[in-house]
Known about the structure:
The protein has helices spanning 5-33, 81-94, 118-127, 139-148, 191-206; strands at residues 38-39, 50-53, 58-60, 68-74, 104-110, 132-136, 153-155, 166-168, 172-175, 181-185. By secondary structure, the protein is an alpha+beta fold. Strands 1-10-9-4-5-6-2-3 form an 8-stranded mixed sheet, sandwiched between helices. α2 (81-94) links the parallel β4 and β5 (104-110). α2 crosses α5. The longest helix has 29 residues, at 5-33. The protein is globular. The model is unreliable at 1-32 (pLDDT under 50).
Amino acid sequence: MSTSPFRRHTGTLSLLALILMTLVVSGCSGEEENWNGKDISGLMPGLEFELTDSQGRSVTAEQFDGKVRLLFFGFTSCPDVCPTALQKLNQATEGLPPGLQDDVLTLFVSVDPERDSPERLAAYVNFFGEGIIGLTGKEPQLRELAKRYRTTFGYEEPDENGNYAVSHSSAVYVFDREGKARLLIRADLSPKEIRQDLIALARTDTE
Length: 207
C-alpha cells in the first residue's frame, strides 16, 4: 500500500518539529549548565534599596545601574565568613579583563549599623580592594532588604564587654546591568569560577 503525500509531509513536519524542539531544549539546558553559580533569573526581585554609603551619603540601587552588581550581607566584626567572601570576590574581580573591571561592583551591606559607622565601613571595604561599596542603614531598612531576598540576620547576646556576634547569610546575589537578579554564588565556588560567570554575564549584557 502506498503512503499518501499528505501523510508523508505530515510525518516530515512532525519529525522536523521534534528535532527543533530537541535543539531548543538542549540549547536552554546548555545555557543553564554554563553557569557555575545558581541561576535565579525570574526567581528573585530586582535590585532595589535606599541605604547610606561609607561616605555618609544616601544612595539608591539605580545609581549603580549599568554595572553588574554583587550583593552581600555581612558586618565588619565578622571573624570568618565576611573576610573570606570579600577576599574571594576581590580575587575574582581583579582578574577580570581590563575592559570589564569597571563594569562589576560589589555591594557590601552591613547589617550591624550600631557598630559599623560610615568611617569604619570605609576602612573595612578599602582593605579588600577597589570596586567594593560599603552600605548600611537603619535596622528596619536592613530587615526589609534582607527579606526581599529571602534571607535574614540576627544578633546574639553581648558578652561582658558588650561584644556580640551577628548571624547572617553567606549568599552572594548577582544582578545584571539592568538590576535583574541573575545568579546566586555559593561559598564553595572558586574565584576563577566566579570570574567566569561575571565575564559571561557582563559580555552578554553588552551584546
